[in-house]
Amino acid sequence: MESHKGVTLLDFWVSPFGQRARIAMAEKGIEFEYKEENLAQKSELLLKMNPVHKKIPVLVHDGKPVCESLIIVQYIEEAWPEKTPLLPSDPYQRAQARFWADFVDKKVYDCGTRLWKTKGEEKEAAKKEFIEILQILESELGDRKYFGGETFGYVDVAFVPFTAWFHSYETEAGFSVEESAPKISTWAKRCGERESVKKHLYEKEKVYEFVCMLKKRLGIE
Amino acid sequence: MGEGELKLLGTWGSPFAIRVRIVLNQKEVKYEYFEEDLTNKSELLLKYNPIHKKIPVLVHNGRSVCESLVILQYIDEAWSKSGSSVIPTDPYERAMARFWAAYIDDKVIQALLGILKATTEEEKTYKISETMSVMELLEEAFEKCSKGKTFFGGDTIGFLDVTLGSYLTWLKAAEKLSELILLDETKFPKLVEWTEQFLSTDCVKEIMPEVEKAEEFITKTLKPRWAAASSK
C-alpha cells in the first residue's frame, strides 16, 4: 500500500461524512478509487490506516492516510490548491467558514440521530432543537446562493450530505424543513442540481430505507 | 492584515484560552484581555459569541472569531509575518496536526475528569489506565510529528504543542490531588522531555497558571459542584 500512487477513499455508501470527501473531490475534479467498507467486518486496510478511531471515511493519498471528514476536506483543499477553491482567501472569511463547518459537525448529526432513535418527550425535544439548528444555519445563509457566497464552498460541502437525510428526519419527527427553514430548503434543492451532489448523494427514499433498517436492528419501534 | 484593535475574552484556567494567549504571546501581538466569569457571562461575551456563548473569543477590529482551533488558524493567517508559523505549511503535516489536536481535545479533559471524579478505587484504576492509553498514543504522535526535534511543531512551538500544552497545569494538578504520576518518564520519555521544554519557554511561562491555583479550584469549587450534582 505504501508505494501505491493515487487517491483511495475508504468509505460506507450512505455515510454523510464520507460523502463530504466524495463531493469535495468531485468539485475539484480529483480522480479517486472508492472502496466500500463492511462496518460489521472492518478490513485490514481500514484498521491499518485508521488505528486510532477505526472509522470511515479515510482518504489514502500516495499510501498516506488522512482521517476525520472535515480534516480530509481541508486536506483535499490544500493538496490541490489550484483546483476550484472551497475556502475564500481572506483570513476572516476563512475563520467564519471553519466556524460554521464546525457548527454543522457538532450539531446536525447528533441531533438528527436523536430524531429517529428516541421517542415521546425526548423526540419532541430533539425536534425543537433540530429546527433551531436549521434556523441558525438559515440565518447565517441569509439570501446568499450558498454558504460560500456565490460559489459552493467548504460549509456547503460540510452540510449538504445531510440534505439526503431531511426526508427521514421529517418523517420520523413530524416536521417540515421547508416550513421551518425555507431558505435551507431552497439551498438544498439548489445544491441538489450540482453534478457532484447528484452523483454522490443517495435518493431520500433509499436513505429512509436505511434508517428503518437501523431502527429494526436496534429494536426501536 | 494584523493591525487594529484586538480583544480576547477568556478565563485564567481554560486550556482553550491559554493556547490562544500563548500563540499571541509568541507572535508578540498586543491585545486587551477580558477575564470572564462563566457563572455570570458578560454582555461582551454574549454579543461576540451568541451561538455558543463560550470562551475564548477573539475580537479583531470588532469582528469575532470563535472556537480555539479556528482562532489559532486565524492568528496564523492574519499575523503570518510575525513570529514563526503556528500550523505546518505542508498539507499532510497540517492534516496530522489537525487530527491530533482533535484527538487531544476529545480525550485529555475526559481522561483527567474521569480520574478526578472517580468515586471508587476500581473506577479510578480504570480511568488511569484509559489515560495511560491516551498518553501512549500521544508519545507515538510526538515521535512522528517532531521528527527528532524539540517540539511537535519542530524547532518552535506550534499548533499541537499549545493544544496539548494548555492542559499541563490541570494534568499536574490531577497528578498531585490523585497522588499518581501520569507524566512517567520511564513510560513516556519523549512527552516528559517535551513538557519540560514547553513549560520553560518564555511565551508559555508567562501564561500558564500555577498548579496550586488549579488544585485549589478543583478542591474548593469543582469537587463540591460535582458532589452537589450527583446527590440530586
Structure, described:
The complex is a heterodimer of chains A (221) and B (232). With 221 residues, chain A is of the alpha+beta class. Helices cover 58% and strands 8% of the residues of chain A. Chain A has eleven helices and four strands. Chain A has helices at 16-27, 44-49, 69-79, 91-117, 120-141, 154-159, 166-173, 177-180, 182-192, 195-200, 204-218; strands at 7-11, 33-36, 58-61, 64-67. In chain A, strands 2-1-3-4 form a four-stranded mixed sheet, with helices on one face. In chain A, strand 1 (7-11), helix 1 (16-27) and strand 2 form a beta-alpha-beta unit. In chain A, helix 4 crosses helix 7. The longest helix of chain A is centred in the middle third of the chain and has 27 residues, at 91-117. Chain A starts with 6 loop residues before the first strand and ends with a helix. The relative contact order of chain A is 0.13. With 232 residues, chain B is of the alpha+beta class. Helices cover 58% and strands 7% of the residues of chain B. Chain B contains ten helices and four strands, in the order βαβαββαααααααα. Chain B has helices at residues 15-26, 43-48, 68-78, 91-117, 121-146, 159-165, 168-178, 189-199, 202-205, 211-230, and strands spanning 6-10, 32-35, 57-60, 63-66. The longest helix of chain B has 27 residues, at 91-117. The radius of gyration of chain B is 18 Å and the shape is globular. Classes of the chains: A alpha+beta (221), B alpha+beta (232).
Structural class estimated from helices and strands of chain B: alpha+beta
Q: What percentage of amino acids of chain B are in beta strands?
A: 5-15%
Q: Which H/E pattern describes the elements of chain A?
A: EHEHEEHHHHHHHHH
Query: Which spans of chain B of ≥5 residues are poorly predicted at pLDDT below 50?
Result: none
Tally the helices of chain B: what do you get? 10
Roughly what is the average pLDDT of chain B, rounded to an integer? Answer: 95
Q: Give the strand order of the largest sheet of chain A, numbering strands 1, 2, ... along the chain.
A: 2-1-3-4
Q: How far apart lie the N and C ends of chain B?
A: 51 Å
The most extensive interface between chains reads: A-B, 21 and 22 residues
Structural class of chain A: alpha+beta
Helicity range of chain A: 55-70%
Uncertain runs of chain A:
none
Secondary-structure element string of chain B = EHEHEEHHHHHHHH
The share of residues in extended strands of chain A comes to 5-15%
What is the percent of helical residues of chain B? 55-70%
Described by strand count, sense and barrel closure, the largest sheet of chain B is: 4 strands, mixed
Radius of gyration of chain B: 18 Å
Shape, principal axes of CA atoms of chain A? globular
Radius of gyration of chain A: 18 Å
The number of helical elements of chain A comes to 11
